[in-house]
Specification:
Helices cover 35% and strands 11% of the residues. The chain has 7 helices and 4 strands; from the N terminus they run αααββαββααα. A 4-stranded antiparallel beta sheet has the order 1-2-4-3.
């Protein structure tokens, strides 16, 4: 489900309340994280057209306003926008030449967030950590945004099923900020071992990521 400003836009567009989860899920369910699609009974899944063409980015500011106010432009379920430094930051779906991606705008209050994230992604990669494919792009007025490849999509658009640490550990989603690091690592390493992988290698990679 969307969070933060995207959730506010979903509530306003559907004219419902924030706790009406089923209505909100149907409004954004056509394009969700992982290999999941939610549609009304008797209707076939629909394809959501990307909100942005990275070859012709247009006006990021106008697009961000549209995405933050309604679901008309980009009715997809992108979580992750929570109350923090990026509280006013918005994202939109993109079909880049390299495959499905997310376009992350900078906010008016923090105009260089895209450059900041690009710097730390490149730094993380230089340290040997796995990072998504990404690049800075510029709109017609010189504003920047960060284009980040989706980890839950193949380059040809095929969907990749996802589980997070709470699901693997059998914990409720609300526990994600209370789950101890060692609990998450142990659960994920055990899941890798159950699938025929190495718990030791998984533990090492997870510790490096933390």
């Amino acid at each position: 489900m969307p969070e933060g400003v995207r959730l506010d836009a979903a509530v306003a567009s559907t004219k419902t309340s924030v706790d009406d989860h089923f209505t909100l899920l149907l409004a954004v369910g056509a394009d969700m994280i992982g290999n999941v699609s939610v549609t009304p009974t008797g209707t076939a899944p629909t394809t959501i057209e990307p909100a942005v063409d990275p070859e012709r980015p247009g006006d990021f500011e106008a697009l961000a306003v549209s995405v933050g106010e309604s679901l008309e432009v980009d009715p997809i379920a992108l979580p992750g926008v929570q109350p923090k430094v990026s509280a006013s930051r918005l994202t939109a779906a993109v079909r880049a030449p390299t495959g499905p991606a997310i376009l992350k705008f900078s906010s008016a209050r923090f105009p260089r967030l895209a450059q900041n994230e690009d710097f730390f992604l490149r730094t993380a990669r230089a340290c040997g950590l796995r990072t998504p494919a990404h690049e800075l792009i510029v709109d017609d007025d010189g504003r920047t945004a960060l284009l980040v490849g989706r980890f839950d999509r193949q380059p040809d658009g095929r969907l990749i099923a996802q589980e997070d640490a709470c699901q693997v550990a059998g914990a409720y989603p609300a526990s994600k900020y209370r789950l101890k690091t060692e609990t998450a690592i142990a659960a994920l390493a055990a899941a890798c071992a159950d699938g025929g992988g190495s718990a030791t290698a998984a533990t090492l990679e997870l510790l490096q990521t933390v």
